[in-house]
Amino acid sequence: MVDSEIILQTDGLTKEFKGFVAVKEVALKVRRGTIHALIGPNGAGKTTCFNLLTKFLPPTAGHIHYKGAEITRAAPADIARMGLVRSFQISAVFGHLNALENVRVALQRRLATSFQFWKSERTLDQLNGRAEELLAAVGLQDFRDYLAIELPYGRKRALEIATTLALDPEMLLLDEPTAGMGHEDVGRIAQLIKKVAKDRTVLMVEHNLSVVADLSDRITVLARGEIIAEGSYAEVSRDPQVRQAYMGSTDVEAGHG
């Protein structure tokens, strides 16, 4: 029986690669309307777990349920249409289109029209209003005419979030959203995640533990492919297994995953 308050649930989720078990019997429950973080040291299985959830990899064993429906064998495009969208992987960012055009392309996809670049400018202009709203939502209203390739790294990430939001996801999976960013960009993206999470569920893999501590309602810690702890940041940071997993550190905050 699947709890209606649980939007995403896995049971016994396992992935083996030629005898190596990357993810082992993971039982994950993500509640609706929360920000849930998946953390762990390098090699913990976080990315493999994300690839299983978003159907980029088939599981060796186990089940995945989304909104009460089993999606274990569903195709990536099918679960995206169901409202489960992975940012930075599915988002459409074209370097030689400007920011507005990138969001407009994503809006076309949600409307189930093909990428008809030969359509008249007047027809495409009908999407401009919503595209401009999305750019404003991620703080890019002043960058609408910049080519994506010209945007600073943090702004490009914000554009990727805007194109993902164009698909109107009910649940957003963020794969290391602040990776490679300087302090200012990290703060900006963290605030953006908090903003877009107000009316949807977010599951994120994130190495920056200060971002995890600030944003997450609940945290699942993986090590060697298995869940070793779950709870609030305060709870998991006190857990001896978690401290040991982060390279023997006595303080989780000193660890980097």
Written account of the structure:
The structure is a single chain. The chain has 257 residues and is an alpha/beta fold. It folds into 2 domains: 1-90 and 171-190 and 198-257, P-loop containing nucleotide triphosphate hydrolases (Rossmann fold), CATH 3.40.50.300; 92-166, no CATH class. 33% of the residues lie in helices and 24% in strands. It has 10 helices and 11 strands. It has helices at residues 46-53, 76-81, 99-110, 121-125, 128-137, 153-165, 183-196, 209-215, 233-237, 240-245; strands at residues 6-17, 20-26, 29-31, 35-39, 61-66, 69-70, 84-87, 171-175, 201-205, 218-223, 226-231. Helix 3 (99-110) packs parallel to helix 6 (153-165) and helix 6 runs parallel beside helix 7. The longest helix is centred in the last third of the chain and has 14 residues, at 183-196. The protein is globular and about 55 Å long. Mean pLDDT is 88; it is low at 253-257.
Labels describing this entry:
five-stranded antiparallel β-sheet; 11 strands; 2 domains; disordered C terminus; 257 residues; alpha/beta; Rossmann fold; globular; 33% helix; 10 helices
Ends distance: 34 Å
Unreliable segments of 5+ consecutive residues: 253-257
Q: How much helicity do the residues have?
A: 25-40%
Structural class: alpha/beta
Strand order of the largest sheet: 7-8-9-4-10-11
Mean pLDDT: 88
**CATH C-level label of the largest domain:** Alpha Beta
The number of helical runs is 10
Assigned CATH architecture of the largest domain: 3-Layer(aba) Sandwich
**What is the CATH fold-level name of the largest domain?**
Rossmann fold
Q: Give the tally of β-strands.
A: 11
What is the ordering of alpha helices and beta strands? Answer: EEEEHEEHEHHHHEHEHEEHH
| Gyration radius, in Å | 19 Å
CATH superfamily of the largest domain: P-loop containing nucleotide triphosphate hydrolases
Give a short account of the largest sheet.
6 strands, mixed
Strand proportion? 15-25%
Query: What spatial form do the alpha-carbon principal axes imply?
Result: globular
How many domains? The number is 2
